[in-house]
């Protein structure tokens, strides 16, 4: 396939001595208004070297780069050199490329030989896997898929919150009020209940806090009973968490959480002392980060026990030693921005140059639209409850509208879960958003069901011609505005994936899926597909096939299923 951007850049670089091919490629863009053309090269940077006005340069270049086969017009407009593609040739190129590459269309090998760690979800043992966790979990999983798609060697890590003094409290609470059978039946709410009970009781009886500290110390020292209880909490919690991950299609390569680093703490603390980074402060140890505009970071407590930050230092070092990453990504909420700034600065002070390869991919908050999600579990809204409710409501919609649908339970699951996931990824990650179940499940607007329905519609068209031999496509049939727009959107899929990767922004792909879906639906509305003229029919069918293929690939990158019927 002709890579238009590169072809243009190559041509221009043979004319413009002052700029390299890469520089030109980097400057190329798509005009905001598609009527202005499909590709544009801004000439402003050349004005100085050429001692001419940008538009004069653009006019001169336009004469030199014309190519009838590729472009129907090359024009100079306000300092931009605009290229309008030859629609027929462009359609042929793009569609053939999509159909030959199939699932690999849009992929690249820019990540080949590079190791990327993506840490996400990182939920806390014995605590609810709540609606707020959807952010890290899905942004992380989507980045995981995008990185793989671009050829990176990825390691997906769930840095479980499975350590800390709260486990001493939980052990005390369990020994006082725990009923194993009751807890096993519904682990998280029950563990949460006795944990809350502990706090209430400790207010009356502060000695309980001492007991909890003692039990945590036992746990740290490997005491058999303490470890057995902690393991029980962890196993029960993971069973529940894995059920949720299963529903979401989320997978990890490692569950090495905070406890995994407990035996690596003494060495990292010693290293901080040896490198003279820490200072004593009221019995504890801190790193003074004032010169860098940050508040002091606590790395050991008065009683010598380790902290979240210290465990993160040990974890980073372990990851570098074990995986020798090229990039180490943390998908964690903006609330922990300071934590990651301090942590990165300390790695820098320790002399680890690779701190520059660590990235905190932050995100805003998700809130819940009032009343939309009544829950029988108090204040916390469990993510699994939201997913189940979405599936249940989808199934009742199917029962009402299409009761004969085959495998309707499975499809309801794909639509319900997909709806929740899609709403999550459709929002730019740095923005706060408010979750609404009704909006999520709507088949209209920018939703998961809308794009899934569009994909199913394409599949249904293709089912109608299954087994029929088609003529050679007449791509001139794809030069009307609606068809041209679909082709244009198909052509930029690879760029979209790269952009999402560059900004750690899955929503770029989610928006693309909607854009392609809307454009396809316009095409479908404007053009009959199964027409008599064999060449026209073949061209339109080829376009449908290409759309189906790219939709499916893109949907996978944003972690939603693409049912063929719904
Ligand atoms: N478990 C933590 C929390 O719920 C998130 C962990 C983030 N990852 C990290 N390496 N600190 O707040």
In short, what is this structure?
This protein is an alpha/beta fold.
Describe this structure in words.
Helices cover 54% and strands 10% of the residues. With 566 residues, it is an alpha/beta fold. The chain has three domains: 4-85, Gyrase A, domain 2 (2-Layer Sandwich), CATH 3.30.1360.70; 86-159 and 362-566, Orthogonal Bundle (Isoleucyl-tRNA Synthetase, Domain 1); 164-248, no CATH class. The strands form four sheets. A four-stranded parallel beta sheet has the order 5-4-9-10, sandwiched between helices. Strand 9, helix 14 (337-349) and strand 10 form a beta-alpha-beta unit. Helix 5 packs across helix 22 (534-557) and helix 7 (166-177) crosses helix 10. The chain is flat, with a radius of gyration of 28 Å. Mean pLDDT is 94; it is low at 372-376. The protein binds arginine (ARG). Arginine binds at residues 119, 122, 124, 159, 161, 312, 330, 332.
- Tertiary shape: flat
**CATH-defined architecture of the largest domain:** Orthogonal Bundle
Largest sheet: 4 strands, parallel
Kindly state the number of beta strands.
12
């Amino acid at each position: 396939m002709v890579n238009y951007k590169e072809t243009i850049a190559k041509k221009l670089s043979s004319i413009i001595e002052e700029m390299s091919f890469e520089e030109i490629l980097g400057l190329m863009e798509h005009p905001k208004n598609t009527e202005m053309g499909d590709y544009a090269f801004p000439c402003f940077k050349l004005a100085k070297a050429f001692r001419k006005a940008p538009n004069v340069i653009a006019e001169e270049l336009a004469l030199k780069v014309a190519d009838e086969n590729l472009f129907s017009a090359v024009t100079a407009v306000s300092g931009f050199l605009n290229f309008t593609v030859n629609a027929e040739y462009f359609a042929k190129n793009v569609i053939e490329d999509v159909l030959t590459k199939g699932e690999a269309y849009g992929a690249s090998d820019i990540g080949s030989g590079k190791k990327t760690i993506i840490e996400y979800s990182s939920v806390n043992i014995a605590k609810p896997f709540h609606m707020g966790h959807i952010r890290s979990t899905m942004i992380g999983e989507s980045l995981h898929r995008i990185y793989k798609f671009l050829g990176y060697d990825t390691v997906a890590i769930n840095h479980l919150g499975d350590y800390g003094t709260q486990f001493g409290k939980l052990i005390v609470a369990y020994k006082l009020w725990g009923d194993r059978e009751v807890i096993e039946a519904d682990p998280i709410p029950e563990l949460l209940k006795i944990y809350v009970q502990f706090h209430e009781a400790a207010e009356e009886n502060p000695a309980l806090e001492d007991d909890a500290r003692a039990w945590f110390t036992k746990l740290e020292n490997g005491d058999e009973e303490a470890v057995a209880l902690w393991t029980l909490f962890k196993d029960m919690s993971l069973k529940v968490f894995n059920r949720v991950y299963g529903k979401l299609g989320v997978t990890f390569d490692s569950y090495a959480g905070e406890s995994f680093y407990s035996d690596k703490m003494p060495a990292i603390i010693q290293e901080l002392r040896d490198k003279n980074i820490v200072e004593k402060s009221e019995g504890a140890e801190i790193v003074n980060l004032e010169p860098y505009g940050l508040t002091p970071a606590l790395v050991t407590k008065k009683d010598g026990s380790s902290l979240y930050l210290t465990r993160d230092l040990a974890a980073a070092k372990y990851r570098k030693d074990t995986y020798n990453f090229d990039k180490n990504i943390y998908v964690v909420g903006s609330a922990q921005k300071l934590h990651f700034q301090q942590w990165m600065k300390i790695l820098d002070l320790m002399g680890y140059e690779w701190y520059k390869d660590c990235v905190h991919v932050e995100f805003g908050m998700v809130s819940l639209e009032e009343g939309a999600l009544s829950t029988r579990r108090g204040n916390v809204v469990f993510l699994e409850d939201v997913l189940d409710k979405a599936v249940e409501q989808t199934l009742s919609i199917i029962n009402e509208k299409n009761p004969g649908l085959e495998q309707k339970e499975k499809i309801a699951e794909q639509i319900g879960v997909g709806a929740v996931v899609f709403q999550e990824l459709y929002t730019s990650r740095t923005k706060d958003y408010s979750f609404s179940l009704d909006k999520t499940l709507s088949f209209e607007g920018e939703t998961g069901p809308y794009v899934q329905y569009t994909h199913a519609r394409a599949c249904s068209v293709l089912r109608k011609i299954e087994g029929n031999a088609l003529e050679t496509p007449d791509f001139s049939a794809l030069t009307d505005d609606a068809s041209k727009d679909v082709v244009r959107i198909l052509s930029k899929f690879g760029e979209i994936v790269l952009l999402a990767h560059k900004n750690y922004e899955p929503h770029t792909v989610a928006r693309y899926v909607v854009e392609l879906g809307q454009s396809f639906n316009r095409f479908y509305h404007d053009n009959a597909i199964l027409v008599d003229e064999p060449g026209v029919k073949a061209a339109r069918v080829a376009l449908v096939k290409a759309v189906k293929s790219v939709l499916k690939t893109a949907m996978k990158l944003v972690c939603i299923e693409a049912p063929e019927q719904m």
